Amino acid sequence: MAEVPELRLVPPPGSPDPGGAVDCDTLLARTALGDVAAYEALFDALSGAVLGLARRVVRDPALAEDVVQDVFLEVWKSATRYDATRGRAKTWVLTIAHRRAVDAVRRNESARRQDAYAAPDEVDHDEPGAALLRADEHAQVRGCLDSLTDLQLESVRLAYFEGYSYPEVATLLDRPLPTIKTRMRDGLIRLRDCLEGAGA
Amino acid sequence: MSTDVHTLSGAYALHSLDEPERRDFETHLAGCASCRSEVSEFEEVTARLAELETVEVPTHLREQVLREAARTKQLRPEVPAESAADAASPLRRRRWAVWVATAAAATVAAVGVGVAVDRLDDPALPPAAATVFSAPDAEVREVPVGEGVFEVAISPSRNEMAVDARALPDLPEDRVYQLWTVVDGRPQSVGVVSTGAAMAMPEEGATVTLTVEPAGGSPVPTGDPLVSLDPSQI
């Protein structure tokens, strides 16, 4: 009995990627095995985008941090159920992040939302530029956003970055619901095609 | 065409549908492969948008999240439908149900460190063991055994240890699980474990070991150790 193998719950952390590029797919797969080091690396790779997005959508620094916490706890708990055939790890995490941020904002049904309804004219239509211009390193995405029509860009922006429901977007932009629904979809199609073309 | 449910894919990917619409669309998605692939592609796009917003993360937030994760139990992987169907025996099904219930109640417990899932109201576990698992300072470890899992909890304040054997793989009728403490290579039987058991915290340096033995148990272990751990490392 003396030579019983030592219990190992968690596989030993792999060596860090010598190339420096963070492979979120691998990190998530290791997180699913309970690898805490991989989870930390995944947090470091994606938390900046999650926090930035959450701040942008919920517009409340404390609430944004709550969102980050929710998102990464969900990532930790659900990593075991992540299906790699359904998309990249990074996309999975950032999709959770957006959904959580939107949920937080809807739960709050905050004053800002009522203000926006009361005074739709105050919606700052130049605002996408502020957020989007900041990111020079994302010139490719920005270039593709520039290829959208104004209505496509505004529909996508108000829904994604501001967390509005599409009926709210329709109200804010004073367009019929089907139009907004369609602009969201064809805006995303145009972005997808542009990014695919640029990335190829 | 504007009323075509397909066209909701964009609004769906942007999370801008309300709850009833979202549910309707997800029902549609389940049967529409091209919609699923379109939504996946849109999600790749929106992830790129999210990256535009990247900011620095405060240290306190990083620490808080990592601390919370360390105390949180991961969900069990989902059981594919076929394997669940294969697990034909009622006992086996009951165990899967226990697994699912445990995962759903995953308020806590952890890999290595954690607080216990509340099991006080679970009749299958002896109360003494449930009490240890539910102690405020309980630390729980899950040890995979074949397709099953063996859970060990310690409560420093109670100076007790408990095990939960209910999710271990099924054994033939004439075999049982038996728990041992091993000190300096000398095993001492804790007893045959069918559901769970509690005991005083083993002495320092003891190893807790689980084996499969003939029905009724053995005076000394005859099976290979399935689990062997140092309780002080939990």
Give a brief description:
The complex is a heterodimer of chains A (200) and B (234). Chain A has 200 residues and is mainly α.
Topology:
The complex is a heterodimer of chains A (200) and B (234).
Chain A: H1 24-31, H2 36-58, H3 61-78, H4 89-108, H5 111-118, H6 127-133, H7 139-146, H8 150-160, H9 166-173, H10 177-199
Helix pairs in contact in A: 1-2, 2-3, 2-4, 3-4, 7-10, 8-9, 8-10, 9-10
Chain B: H1 9-13, H2 19-30, H3 33-51, H4 59-70, H5 81-86, H6 90-104, H7 127-133, E1 139-145, E2 148-155, E3 160-164, E4 175-183, E5 186-193, E6 196-200, E7 207-214, E8 227-229
Antiparallel strand pairs in B: 1-2, 2-3, 3-6, 4-5, 4-7, 7-8
Q: Give the strand order, joined by hyphens, for the main sheet of chain B.
A: 1-2-3-6
User: What would you call the shape of chain A?
Assistant: globular
Q: Helix fraction of chain B?
A: 25-40%
Structural class of chain B: alpha+beta
- CA gyration radius of chain B, whole angstroms: 24 Å
* Largest sheet: number of strands, sense, barrel closure of chain B: 4 strands, antiparallel
Residues in helices of chain A, as a percent range:
55-70%
Helix-strand pattern of chain A: HHHHHHHHHH
Low-confidence stretches of chain A: 1-20, 114-135
Mean pLDDT rating of chain B:
76
Terminal CA distance of chain A reads 59 Å
- Count up the helices of chain A: 10
Query: What percentage of amino acids of chain B are in beta strands?
Result: 15-25%
Instruction: Give the tally of β-strands of chain B.
Output: 8
Average pLDDT figure of chain A: 80
Oligomer: heterodimer
What is the approximate shape of chain B?
elongated
Q: Radius of gyration of chain A, Cα only, in angstroms?
A: 20 Å
Largest sheet of chain A: none
The portion of residues forming beta strands of chain A comes to under 5%
